Amino acid sequence: xxxxxxxxxxxTAPTRRRLITGVAVAVGGLTMGSAKVWAQVAEEIAHSAxxxxxxxxxxxxxxxxxxxxxNARQFNEVTKIIAAKESAISLEKSxxxxxPNVGGAFSxxxxxxxxxxxxxxxxxxxxxxxxxxxxxxxxxxIAKFELVEQGTxxxxxxxxxxxxxxxxxxxxxxWKAHYWEPLAQFLA
Length: 188
Known about the structure:
The protein is built from 5 helices and 9 strands; from the N terminus they run βααββααββββββα. It is α+β, with helices and mostly antiparallel strands. α3 packs across α4 and α4 (72-83) crosses α5. The radius of gyration is 15 Å and the shape is globular.
């Protein structure tokens, strides 16, 4: 049986709306499976094209956010925050690997997430060919992180497209629980 990171049923909301998620909202009181999380997730999914758009705000500079997302040692610390709660993530089995180069590979969350960097613009943009290990071989999606200065923090304008139909709700909630929330903790 394939392991999924807090997966659930397909979404049903018919519209795409932008939801700007501040750190306080992303971290404060959200638990997987709650009606509040699923209502927010449903607003972030474009069901006609199966895409995800999120805009979390983190209390850190663009440089710090970029480094946390592209440096294996730092992202390993982010992963440890999640691994403490989820037994499916084993860093002993498969440590965090992130190449610093365009075209370079990455392996995250104990090998559950894999891919390659398509574009790296320091402190500004990261574009990845991104996949979950249980997807069919050769199936990749595109994950794009635009880092925008917002006061003393950084807003990540995030878009995820090209993933298998029916995975939007699971992925949208996974980005919050496995990227934005622990990243906010790590950068605090």
